[in-house]
Amino acid sequence: MNIKPISSPHVSSARRVDDIMKKVIFALLPALGFGIFLFGWSALFLTMVTVLSALFFEAVCLKLKGGAVESYLRDGSAIVTGLLVAMTLPPYAPWWIGVVGSGLAIILGKHVYGGLGQNLFNPAMLARVALLISFPIEMTTWVNVSPFFTGLDILESFKITFSGAEISDAITGATTLGFVKTGFSQAQLLPDLLNDYSGFLAFIGWERGSLGETSTVLILLGGLWLMRQGIIQWFIPVSLLASITFLSTLFNLIDSTHYLSAWVHLNSGAVMLVAFFIATDYVTSPNTPLGQLIFGTGCGVLIFVIRSWGGYPEGTGFAVLLMNSVTPLIDHYVRPRIYGRTRDGKPIEGG
Amino acid sequence: MFAFLENPKFRGGIHAEEHKAETCDKPIATNLPLPKKLYIPVQQHVGKPAEPIVKVGEHVLKGQLLAYSQGTISAPVHAPSSGVILDVQDFPAPHPSALPIRTIVIETDGEEKWFKYAIPEKPFELDPEEICLRVGGAGVVGLGGAVFPSAVKLNLGRKNQIHTLLINAGECEPYLTCDDLLMQERAVEIVGGIRLMLRGMNAPKAIVGIEDNKPKAFKAMQAASTEFQQISVVQVPTRYPMGWDRQMLRYLTGNEIPADGRATDIGVVIHNVATTYAVYQAVCLSKPLISRVVTVSGGAVSKPQNVEVPIGTLMSEVLAFCGVENEKLARLIMGGPMMGEVLPHADVPVVKASSGILALSHEDIFEPEVKPCIRCSSCVTACPVGLLPLEMASRIKANKLDAAVDLGLKDCISCGSCSYVCPSNIPLVHYFKFASGELFSRQQREHKAEQTKRLAENRTQRMERIKAEAEEDARRVMEARAARQAAEAKAQEENA
Ligand code: SF4
Ligand code: SF4
Questions:
Q1: What is the pLDDT of residues B35-44, one digit of tens each?
Q2: Where in chain A are the domains?
Q3: Helix or strand (DSSP H, E) at B189
Q4: ipTM more than 0.90?
Q5: 3-class SS of residue A6
Q6: Measured between beta carbons, which residues in chain B are less than 8 angstroms from residue A336?
């Protein structure tokens, strides 16, 4: 155990790591709850499996490292990681996807680097991308909206999650981004491709998508609440969303048959979740306001670029990982100005 | 270009729990029983220690000079009460180490008889030089904690043609209310002190900055200064560390002091508000600085309050007066909880720097275990200087002190904002203090090595010079001898 030496200051704020994590969990709950409601029992099972296995892997890693397992487990960071992994998974993904995802996130994403605070990449995004590359089918099977008590019953759902029951094609489809991408490859053009699209339903989250990513409005509310609580700052979310909005609007104005509008971009895929909960990850984002603006803008630009011209319909995972990898560089070059000095560290002129 | 990311008036800082309510509405207690013995260290200021001029056994009067100031940066000390000099000995100083320092011990006689100094008739018409002289002679030092001799600062101000005297009445440290109470009760004297300072520096105007959590003090100061156009009293937001001189200056004027400079470089001199009161006493009443108002507070005292304490009173007596409950006492601190120093025990004297004595209970200093850094950057946001505490700490942990210096370690003011907010409870300031200490001793070592080298070089040079001189002498002797022999030979030849 670390003994704190007696040194000033002799008082400290009440905020602790566990409080921060608790608040993040709290802020995620509305969007998660909505996702579970939207996709039924399977979504609930998958969430439980993912979070429990995140806790399990965390405990094992802590144990192997030796030291206080319990007090670290209680800091809640593993739960946050588990929740984020679960929320980015397709709702009908089999149980082992959740387990592998959590394992990747906790072991490869976090403890290989030395544990909490040491990792280079956001664990949840690392898991997401690795899963997507390794299990493309499971990771892109999108079930239709099927709220509790209208979709599969508990037993059928249990089979889907735990015993690999076939998911009938009748109840699956493509996400907006995937649909549009496929459409483009068949030389279809935009207004037609979006005939069935409802901007409003996308905003509230009534659409196909990952378990906890669909509801723009609920994620936004959670994120704004976190901001109000002072847990996250505005720099990353605002710059990320602003850069996507700017680029998509620009290209949409130039060629509206090939480029989606800002509204579709902002309400699709993981953009909102990434903007407020993932790109803002303390460990893997820069420490200074300016650095965070650069980081957020970079994420936004990359998301747009990958979505518009890349091989994947959704680019958030890759975008975040890429920006994570330049975070140390940003932190090295972007430093706050020190009192009485210019930005490059020389004393300011007196008089 | 990126200025918009920076609050131009106030950067960083924290809202700490204030704990001022316990003491800020009670009058200053002036009925502390006179201690039987007073322990007056000869060094209570920045600079050279004062030199005692009293002898053991001598009787001294209240206010009489005990030790005179030595050198340009120093300050005298005076007798806080009348009595007999018991001893001049080494006695534990109010410092974390409680290392003994030279201390004059007085056994008080309880008569409180004043030494008679001449009181000027028109103090506000004295020459500036005369004002500075009196301030220096009265042993006035900065009472905000810096304890820099005030007269030196006044002289500096006069020579540098300053345009603003900034009076720092921020008192941003939690718990402390001694400045607050002083302003509430003695605003007229404070304003007098400010006028004297202005005159002493030939400065045109003064601004008093008071945190807006002291409305009573603000009103009192405003009322006391209405008739003096040159003094403006303003409220500043309550946000630690507003009382950091440079922070308050930036807040009130928008200017920063260059990192390598002083306030005078931009035409400003900054004094603490309690110092102005001491200046008033020194000049108008010819009373040297022999007592100060001390905030006694914390969870382990039952009667938290401000007390006027003679310098040299043992803290244990002041604590007893305020009802200290020793079983609750977890940590004793001189100063505020953010920057104050831990004292190992209370048998040390109150000195000019003692703004507060805090007897904190276990609840006050609740300290959960230290966790790893989660890079939340709360410390970066909180730092008023614009440093990267987490980065500096990680460098220091890896023993890369120079890298920490490159990151601005030397600009750190140890304000504690970073440690305060850190959710992982990492003792950041401890790292910084440790590193500064290491750097200092390294510098000392280098200095010493340098000196040894120089001495050695000097020695070789001297030896060579001596050798050369000896050779020169020998040569001269030889030459002389040769010349003499030649002359003799010549003479013999001539004689022959
Ligand atoms: S406040 Fe503490 S945990 Fe957060 S970045 Fe700073 S040192 Fe790390
Ligand atoms: S102690 Fe130093 S590093 Fe920490 S906030 Fe204060 S000035 Fe910044």
A1: 999 999 999 9
A2: 16-173+208-231, 233-334
A3: helix B178-201
A4: no
A5: coil
A6: 6, 380, 383, 386-388
